Amino acid sequence: MSEEHALELASRTLRALAAVRRAATLYPLGHPERLAHGAQAVEAARELVLATGRAERPTLYVHRGSYYLGTVLLPRESLGLGRYAGELEAAGIESITLSGEVSAEDVDRFTEMVAGDAPLVSHLGGISCNVVRPSFRDEEPWERRLGDLRRAYAAGVTSLRHASDRAAAGEGVDLDATSAVVEQLSAEVAQDPGYGLLLSAVKSYDEYTYFHMVNVCLLSVALGQALGLRSEQVMVLGLGGLLHDIGKVFVPAEILRGSGKLDEEQWRLIQRHPVDGAGVLLSTGPGLHHPASSILLEHHAAYDRSGYPGLHDHGPSVPSRLVAVADSFDAVTSKRSYREPLDRHQALELLASTAGSGLDPNAVAAFQRLLGRFPVGSLVRLSSREVAVVVRQHDRLLDRPTVLVLFDATDTPVTVEERDLALGGPHGPRVVERLDPDAYGVDLPRFVASGQLTATAAGRGGGAADGAGGLVHEPAAGEAAPDGYVDTHAEAHHHHGPSGSADPSSSPDPDVAPPFEE
Question: 397, 367 in Cβ contact below 8 A?
């Protein structure tokens, strides 16, 4: 059995167990919905046992909020099932060992233990808990930093799932929970912006919207901190970034997941999400206004007012312009059904091409400085002939960033090492060129998500994803529209005309903290 196959089966098993736990919060024992999820968990677990063979029963570990099959991290589940990991650890469960005799009754009893409704026992028929203890090597500092960020990221994905469920049910958003996530992410990014920018490279195509929203939050927070904004202003940017696409809960999933051409009515539904999202936020809480609501409403309202919805007599607010840059960057670096993702350097060039029209030129310039000459997340060749990925910029020495060295001078993989090139002196290694990750078989999103150098179960280019073909997304600034795209606000654009273009003098100066009210 290949490692890829084992990891995919382990992922399926964990997702199925987590689904049973979610169903248990909604349905009693014996309910058909809960039984259906339980049957899926049993099927996945038995397939994993069968594929592993009789010599050794498969064991799943939970360690510091992450999941492992043996010593191999499961990145997609670690980023997407954060709450379930917390429940397992709270219940005292460190390892789950499976046998071919696992049954639906075992899964139900295990779920009751996870929920805290039954005491922890070691053996449940085909499921054993903590009979094998995890043994992990000491992590390197860079691994610990990414691990801390992964836990904050996982909390963001979990929070967005619940926020989306509440919004779809007309219950509003739990602002305390979402604000706590933004505070956690902001604190992690403030401690090390480079690794925060690096983690924003992860993608998921079965839960694209959630991962995209967390990525936009990370990028917006990093940009706000780089601009020197006050902490409460960074919180507004982060919350706006985290919730900017919450209005898409009202768009049917088959439209968002469709790979074919959409008609005008379908595009109209998608292009309603800024208004719907702002409505969700404005209907939450006792007040009639929330400072992040303008971001939800305006993140597609272009700098020159050619976007949507039409804002009539004013351009988008400063926070909206900043989040729009982060939104566009993450969108064009994600795979679509009709195009491959741009690398980070190409993405910055695309943003620059639309500065002054689709995007605020000062916001783009500040974002370019943040990502750097060799953008964080780029695979590069050093003058020493080693190959590395950029993780942190130097203020002055633009070709001497901090990197993680992945390959030696003979292109042989090595134990990953963080190295600050600025400490090497004038004759030390420096970056000499950008490289194509595909040429080295390196899946950078997956490396960021897992710390593993080569692609595994999710497939190349998938990051924390399932390897699907990409999802529908409205065109980012400067990006070519998909076949059949319809701008359902075209009449409003024509009405405003060139005279409605935004006044560049109202743009933020990227070297100072911009005002949040103009």
Answer: no
